[in-house]
């Protein structure tokens, strides 16, 4: 029930349905209305997929109607009520599933819904946990917990080397909190961990050739199967499908494509920071000035929550006049996969949410990294240190729910330098681009016939189909 979780979960449902598996996607009305386009297309294509809308019990926990997605919240404050409400879906979900024929064979549940553990137990069906995070980041979080690194760490800004990894990865506690590792959230953190350990297996939106060592190590650490079946964004490569991903795009896709067509190959920087971050006006202006100084054409996505009169006036008065068609500003939701796949795009300035990071990897586009919170700093290490396909903007401190007014974490000079660095024609830039391209190719191979992700999906389906038939037989049905 956050954009970065919902998009890949819907993709996973569609990927299973593509293979003829009957899928019921459980969500709440608000969220369903967001993914309507994708839902309608799947139905028209005749996929065996059902969208089940359970009413969201917002009133029971004192939430306003419509606050069913984390990006509708403006602070951390309603969050505990939000998670309380989602766990109240346990009974209606169990009841719904009991009534189904055929009986469900397996539950796949997002990490944020540990309460599904009990549903699966009551129904006596296996349960897989789904993470839209890479195994590198999952293993880092696991090892930090396992080796009790934080038990004796008074300073959350002190950097340390993550134990038990093949590579030397340095982070701080502030940059690498575990899941829900915050004061007041201890119970949730414990439940999430317990649900992860109790899962029958783990499904990850990643692919073998991206991180073979980390997939294997994570599998060993968890002592259960880890199925890597991504990148999900490759499921449907048609322009219409790419454009409809996640939400209705706020720009005419033809207009967007013809702007991109008018630019030289690999010359454009795409700048977007995902659905939850919020840049204040002065930070947005610094970004614009840095992009302007870089002399590269750019696509900048500004969310509704970030637009203000101040920003709009400033852009109209100065920026748009000075740089004209060198910039394309998208206000609202951007057709990101479509843009990243365009040959004129040569770099992506990103917040390092895994969804966006993997989309960039898949498109073979090197990144300029600016993590904000949650798993994003670890994802940055993956991109910069492990894969070596990114340049960091050097941000060290996490920001939650928006930067403070008047404060800029990143200056125009930082932006200019990082953009020039990533778009660089020299050897370093060329090699980085080459590595990114190669990974993009491998990502595509993984999802093709005979590819590793496809094979994992086949095994996963066979494994749980067999399991369901065996338990039917042993029940004497
Ligand atoms: C996830 O994917 C969409 C569409 O591809 C992208 O625009 C969005 O920024 C991503 N969301 C997050 C939270 O990363
Ligand atoms: C991909 O998406 C397009 C446009 O939404 C749709 O017409 C097509 O059937 C989809 N293809 C597959 C394989 O699902
Ligand atoms: C996924 O596929 C790879 C490559 O074919 C294989 O090595 C791995 O064991 C598979 N994973 C599972 C959980 O079956
Ligand atoms: C913003 C949004 O999409 N709101 C919708 C949430 O879901 C309800 C019920 O389906 C709709 O009526 C709203 O328009």
UniProtKB/TrEMBL annotation:
- Glycosyltransferase: is it a keyword of this entry? yes
Any idea which UniProt keywords this protein has? Glycosyltransferase, Transferase
Domain Glycosyltransferase N-terminal positions: 2-232
Quote the EC number.
Answer: 2.4.1.-
The source's domain of life comes to Eukaryota
Name one matching Pfam family. Glyco_transf_N
* GO MF annotations, alphabetized: UDP-glycosyltransferase activity
Q: Does the keyword Glycosyltransferase apply?
A: yes
Q: Which InterPro entries match?
A: Glyco_transf_N, UDP_glucos_trans, UDP_glycos_trans_CS
Q: Which leading EC class covers this enzyme?
A: transferase
Similarity section: Belongs to the UDP-glycosyltransferase family.
Please identify the protein, giving its name as recorded.
Glycosyltransferase
Q: What taxonomic lineage is listed for the species of origin? A: Eukaryota, Viridiplantae, Streptophyta, Embryophyta, Tracheophyta
């Amino acid at each position: 029930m956050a954009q970065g979780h919902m998009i890949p979960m819907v993709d996973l449902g569609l990927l299973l349905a593509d293979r003829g598996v009957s899928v019921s996607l459980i969500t709440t009305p608000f969220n369903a209305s967001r993914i309507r386009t994708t839902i309608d297309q799947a139905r028209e294509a005749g996929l065996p997929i059902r969208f089940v809308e359970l009413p969201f019990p917002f009133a029971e926990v004192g939430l306003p109607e419509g606050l069913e997605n984390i990006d509708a919240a403006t602070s951390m404050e309603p969050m505990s009520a939000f998670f309380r409400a989602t766990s109240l879906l346990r009974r209606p979900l169990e009841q719904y599933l009991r009534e189904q024929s055929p009986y469900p064979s397996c539950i796949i549940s997002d990490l944020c819904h540990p309460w599904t553990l009990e549903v699966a137990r009551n129904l006596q069906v296996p349960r897989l946990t789904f993470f839209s995070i890479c195994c590198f980041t999952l293993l880092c979080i696991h090892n930090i917990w396992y080796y009790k690194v934080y038990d004796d760490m008074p300073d959350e800004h002190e950097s340390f080397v993550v134990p038990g990894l093949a590579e030397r990865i340095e982070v701080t506690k502030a940059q690498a909190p575990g899941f829900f590792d915050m004061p007041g959230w201890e119970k949730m953190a414990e439940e999430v961990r317990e649900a992860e350990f109790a899962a029958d297996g783990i499904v990850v939106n990643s692919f073998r050739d991206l991180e073979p060592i980390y997939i294997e190590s994570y599998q060993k650490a968890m002592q259960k199967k880890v199925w890597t079946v991504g990148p999900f964004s490759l499921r449907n490569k048609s322009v219409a499908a790419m454009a409809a991903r996640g939400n209705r795009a706020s720009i005419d896709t033809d207009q967007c494509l013809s702007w991109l067509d008018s630019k030289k190959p690999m010359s454009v920087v795409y700048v977007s920071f995902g659905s939850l971050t919020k840049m204040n006006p002065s930070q947005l202006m610094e970004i614009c000035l840095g992009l302007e100084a870089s002399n590269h054409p750019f696509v900048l996505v500004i969310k509704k929550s970030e637009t203000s009169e101040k920003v709009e006036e400033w852009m109209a008065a100065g920026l748009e006049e000075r740089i004209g068609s060198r910039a394309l500003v998208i206000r609202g939701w951007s057709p990101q996969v479509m843009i990243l796949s365009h040959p004129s795009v040569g770099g992506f300035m990103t917040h390092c949410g895994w969804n966006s990071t993997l989309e960039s990897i898949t498109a073979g586009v090197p990144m300029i990294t600016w993590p904000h919170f949650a798993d994003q700093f670890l994802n940055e290490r993956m991109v910069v240190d492990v894969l070596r396909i990114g340049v960091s903007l050097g941000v060290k401190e996490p920001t939650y729910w928006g930067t403070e007014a008047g404060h800029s974490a990143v200056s125009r000079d930082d932006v200019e330098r990082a953009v020039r660095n990533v778009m660089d024609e020299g050897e370093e830039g060329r090699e980085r681009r080459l590595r990114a391209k190669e990974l993009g190719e491998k990502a595509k191979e993984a999802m093709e016939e005979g590819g590793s992700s496809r094979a994992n999906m086949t095994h996963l389906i066979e494994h749980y189909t067999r399991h369901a038939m065996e338990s039917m037989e042993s029940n004497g049905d």
